[in-house]
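Risk register update: the risk of archive-format incompatibility is retired. Evidence:
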Amino acid sequence: MHIRNTASRPSTDTGSTESDSPIRLSICMATYKRANFIGQTIDSILGQMQDGMELVIVDGASPDNTEEVVSIYSARHANVRYFKEDVNSGIDGDYDKAVSYARGEYCWLMTDDDLLKAGAVETLIKALEESHDLVVLNSEVWNRDYSSLLVPRFAPIDADRRYSARDMDKLFMDAAGALSFIGCVVIRRRSWLSRTRVPYYGTLFVHFGVIFQSPALGSVLLVAAPLIAIRYGNAMWTPRGFEIWMFKWPDLLWSFEGISAASKSMISAPQPWRQLRKLLLYRAMGSFGITEYRKFLRPNVGRWDSLAPRFVALVPASVANALASVYCLLFSRGSRTNVYDLARSVSSTWVARSVAQVLRVNFK
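Archived output:
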């Protein structure tokens, strides 16, 4: 079934109730310009689909041939529902629309370029039998072509963990890093639609706002086994990395009144751009320079406080790249994502590429 939808705002109607819905799980995907990847993702999902499941895909007005690729699947599979929007509402708005169009009791906010691991759906279905409001799935992090494993478990836990409404600080500390990836979220649809979403449009992490706003969710499960293989370095927002991780992400984290400052500090400083080592890392990756300094930092720092950031912005990116790569080799070999970023950056040096080869990180 192919549906072209022109709605400008997602519905707040919760649709069918849990008792009368034949759909147990809706896999909700927002996509934009992913024709080269989305087919592989859909294949990994359809190979595990069970009765009582559907795949809902919201296409945010992709200008490429995403519609052509997805329409092949929706024509062959009645449980694949495709919505082509006339305008792009951003990642937050399009995921919200996907949940509003879904018919399942639970919604899995799956990404459009990553892959499900074998047995992922079966493991999740069993977890849903415990009737949690939210299930957070663990994931592996791979390089762009899945030739190098960078992080074996995004959430570094060995056994499943359960949380009540009184444990939100603990959940925040255990899962906030993993929850920076929207594909790990499986939430009761009724819970999603009953909570505030629109104020979180534009944050790029609407799911995080839904989860940690007050009042706290009643029951949460964090799954230890990795069920998703993330294709790292392929995000549409990668060129905006400095703005996102230095401003948008920490601003969102520190906005939740129900989470203690101590817990927030475990995940991010309120103003991480004040940390010289972070500025140097982003300079080394080519994401921070004089343009970013003038746009993001100069309006936020005093005259004397601006000296160090300005100096970092003027350091030759190739020098910063080489130094950061040597640091990773000597003191931070576990930071394989940083090694990968340094080797693939626009400022990459032979030092960065050599370090990646030594640590067996395929960056090509």
